[in-house]
Amino acid sequence: MKITRRIFFALCTLIFAALACNLPQANQSTSEPTQEPATTEESVTFNIDEALTLAVQTIQAATLTAVVPTETVTPGPSPTPPSTAPTVSVSSDTNCRTGPNVAYQFVTLFKVGQTANVVGKYTPNNYWIIEYPGGFGATCWLWGAYATVLGETAGLPEGVPPPLPPTATPAPSAPEAPKQLNLACTSVNKSKKVGQIWILAWEWTVEFTWSDQSTNENGFYVYKDGVLLTTLGPDNESYTDVFTQTLIIGDVSYTYGVQSYNDDGASALKDATLSSCP
Fold first, then answer.
1. What pTM, to 2 d.p., does this model score?
2. Helix axes 2-20, 38-66, angle to 10 degrees
3. Which of 70, 187, 191, 263 is the most exposed place for a label (fewest CB within 10 A)?
4. Are 202 and 187 in contact (CB under 8 A)?
């Protein structure tokens, strides 16, 4: 508004100045005026037109400048703050594996005092899928028994366990030899008189026991004094030998042995010796 008033006053001043050029001079001579050249009137008229044109151009420029609208900036929506992934820590050092089971390969030991981002879960086995420290974004499966998770976990995806690694087939081998051999004996007097002759005899019952050390045996060979006494099936750990001992003169001893066997061979023979029977 102030700019328009200034322009208006400037225009009026220019117009008044132009008109004043056409007014008679106060000290003009009364004698017959000498005829002025035609170019004088044209010059005055040209100056008036030029002044008016300049004034109009000034007003137009000012008007264009004054009416330029101001751009209105409409604020956009506020940016959504980035979501924070839940984190996990443990109260006891815990193995982190390639899947939710001890059958999966070990990846790293997640220690007390460490934290990691949780990116998934496996509810059936209570496992968390984490980005383990030092893995540069790689993940492993952490058992949740000692884990404490901070943050929202409802939206975490349920993990799909990878296939179990193939179980290594053990190389064929003979079974392990039995251990902890033991002999226990009881006797019953079976002596009797036949006519005028006494036949002295005792019935011995020998309990031969051992501890099975293998899981791949087909059975056991049981020996007495180096001679095969019997063959037993797998998982046996004892044999009872009952026999009659006739007249005993001097010391008598018996050696019992046992070995396990399978299609790939037999174990070492283990034995124990019995020297008396109460």
1. 0.42
2. 180
3. 70
4. yes
